[in-house]
Design goal:
This protein has about 190 residues and is mainly alpha-helical. The chain is built from five helices and three strands; from the N terminus they run αααββαβα. This is PTTG1IP. It comes from Bugula neritina. Keywords: Membrane, Signal, Transmembrane, Transmembrane helix.
Length: about 190
């Protein structure tokens, strides 16, 4: 299951990366919009060019010209306008092409990072739970062995105490009892 989940995550990452890479102008599809359709909005305002062409035309704000978007590729339009990407409006007039590219890249990056984080959390959390369970079993086994050793040690200590008491009894040496024996003192005689 873990290998399948990781394989799916890799394929999703690869597909996202391939879709996020911009196409070269040489591989871009030719536009279905003829230059005449966009050029009829030249000299007019941005809204008339962008809204009436339904995303097929881009508007150069500085020159007030309307160009087809995919005639030479999306990013080749920046060469047609003097201001570059910050001068082009496409899809909406309130956001220029540069801001649109940066915004879409940031949102796409955040989505990609959050997707990867979710996949990592799913893989790691399951492993972490299994690992914790394994550690808990090992800790329980270690604690059980420690208790067994303590019990054996207490048993041996009790046996030793019994043997020591028997020896003390045999020789008349009891704890707390002075016994019948006394220390002999040396005489000066």
């Amino acid at each position: 299951m873990k290998k399948q989940l990781c394989a799916v995550a890799f394929l999703a990452f690869a597909c996202t990366f391939t879709l996020a890479v911009p196409t070269n102008s040489s591989t871009a599809k030719p536009s279905t919009t003829t230059p005449g359709v966009c050029s009829q909005y030249d000299g007019k305002d941005c809204n008339s060019c962008v809204s009436n062409s339904k995303g097929k035309c881009a508007y150069c704000n500085e020159e007030k010209l309307c160009h087809p978007v995919l005639s030479k590729g999306l990013f080749s339009e920046s060469k047609l306008c003097k201001g570059g990407l910050s001068d082009i409006s496409w899809g909406t007039c309130s956001v220029n092409m540069l801001a649109l590219i940066i915004g879409v890249s940031v949102v796409g990056g955040l989505l990609l990072i959050s997707f990867c984080a979710c996949i990592c959390c799913c893989c790691c959390c399951k492993n972490s739970a299994k690992q914790k369970l394994k550690w808990m079993k090992q800790d329980a086994a270690a604690a059980r062995k420690t208790e067994e050793r303590k019990a054996k040690y207490a048993e041996r200590r009790a046996e030793r105490q019994v043997k020591n008491d028997e020896i003390r009894k045999k020789y008349g040496l009891f704890k707390g009892d002075q016994g019948s024996y006394q220390r002999m003192e040396e005489d000066d005689a």
